């Protein structure tokens, strides 16, 4: 139960955790609280415009009872004039934080990147590279000055330089998420990047291999005779896994007995684990690769037993040998989805295999080839 007495060095000294609170007998609302561990803090309780506030004046040891009393008098005088001292204190704190993290570069390095790293350490380097390559011109901007108008001008320049609409959409979502976090953390009051609408993108144009291209790709794989590349390409072709998921795959994630592999939630873009059955070619590919690479650690690893970092040279060489153009490694995922749909697999099953959270994303991958559409309409012709 709270006790009453004039707050002085003597009365503070006599406080025990059981007292919990000491109300001053001279200044209305001035009081002391003591925690179960004995920490003592000074407060001023006041009401203003129907709002009740408990304003913290300071901690005992950092200020004296006399200093707390003088501060309580000053703040109570401000409240009497209609000033909400708690709101003023909050704004001062925001201003201080803004001064510390005033530019985008400082905010990213001191706040945003550490937060992202704690949530998903495997993607932090990719995010850092994306910010550095895309938003270099904004690094010296005050984060409050990164407006929709500035981003619109930036986007127009990117488009004029040949950057694709889908790419700028992804980049803008990146900085939107960053500024939304700054709002949530109280560094800025708001941002208006919601005004920057996503550009319309034709998602029906998805690249996949024709029968002839796939045959040439297989012939080139055999001629190059690069074991890891052949295993990587055939596994991508038969599972639809993303590049990052493949390079993060461990032998512990593969059950050759039951012919299924698991994409761990930490490596999946959706954040959810998924299980992919191994068809005959995928199973045989992994079974053969296991004998060559060993079945411990990462499935695709470098000489230091770390995940394979890159294979751009070998991939480019493969496409050249196969005489295939305008085809990325990620397009093997499109190819996988397209083959499933052309084999009359229902879209929801395709969605589950690809690891999409909703069917809308699957529609982008699961299109039908023109010759299959022609065959369909000819059935009633």
Automatic annotation (TrEMBL):
PROSITE patterns: CB, TYR_RECOMBINASE. Residues 103-183 form the Core-binding (CB) domain. It comes from the Bacteria. The keyword DNA-binding applies. It comes from Pseudoalteromonas marina. Residues 204-378 form the Tyr recombinase domain. This is Site-specific integrase. SUPFAM superfamilies: DNA breaking-rejoining enzymes. Gene3D superfamilies: 1.10.150.130, Integrase, DNA-binding domain, Intergrase catalytic core. Keywords: DNA integration, DNA recombination, DNA-binding. The lineage of its organism: Bacteria, Pseudomonadati, Pseudomonadota, Gammaproteobacteria, Alteromonadales. Pfam families: Arm-DNA-bind_3 (PF13356), Phage_integrase (PF00589). Belongs to the 'phage' integrase family.
